[in-house]
Amino acid sequence: MKSSRYWMTVSMLLLTIFAFAQVKNSQTMTVSINGNCGMCKKTIEQAGSVTKEAIVEWDADSESAKLTFDSTKTSEDAILKRIALAGYDNEKYLAPEETYQNLHACCQYERTLKAEENPSAENASEHQHGTVENQEQINTLQTVFDGYFKLKDALVKSDANASSTQASAMLVSLEAIKMDKLSAEEHTSWMNVKNSLIEQSKLIAKQKDLKKQRAEFNTLSTKMYELMKTSDTQQTIYYQHCPMYNDGQGGNWLSKEDAIKNPYYGSQMLTCGNTVEKI
Amino acid sequence: MKNSFKIPGIVFLISLFISNSLLAQKVVRYDLYVKDTLVNFGNKEKRAIAVNGQIPMPTLAFTQGDTAEIIVHNLLQESTSLHWHGVHLPNREDGVPFLTQMPIQPGSTYTYRFPVVQNGTYWYHSHSGFQEQIGMYGSLVFHKKKDDPTFRKGIDDLPTIPIVLSEWTHLNPHQVQRMLNSGSDWFAIKKNTVQSYAEAIKTGKFKTKVTNEWKRMEAMDVSDVYYERFLLNGQTESQLAQFKAGDQVRLRIANGGASSYFWLTYAGGKIKVVGNDGNDVEPVEVDRLIIGVSETYDVVVTIPAEQTSYELLATAEDRTGSASLFIGEGIRQLQVPLPRLQYFEGMKMMNDMMKMNGDMNDMGMKMSLQKMDMNTVMYPEMKPTDMTAHAGHSKQVPKKMDDMEHMQHEKKNEHSEHVEENEISTLSYSMLKSTEKTNLPANAPVRELRFELTGNMNRYVWSMDNRVLSESDKIPVKKGEILRISLYNNSMMRHPMHLHGFDFRLLNEQGDYSPMKNVMDIMPMETNVIEVEANRDGDWFFHCHILYHMMAGMNRVFEVGNYDNPLLPDKKKAYKELQKESNMIHLMAENDFATNGLDGSAMLQNARWSLGTEWRLGYHDMHGYEVETHVGRYIGKMQWFMPFVGFDWRYRKMGMHEEEINLFGEKNTKDNRSAVSLGFMYTLPMLVNFQAEVYHDGILRLSLMREDIPISRRLRAGFMLNSDKEYMLDLRYILHKNMGIRTHYDSDMGFGIGLALNY
Question: What letter does residue B5 receive in the DSSP assignment?
Answer without folding.
Answer: H
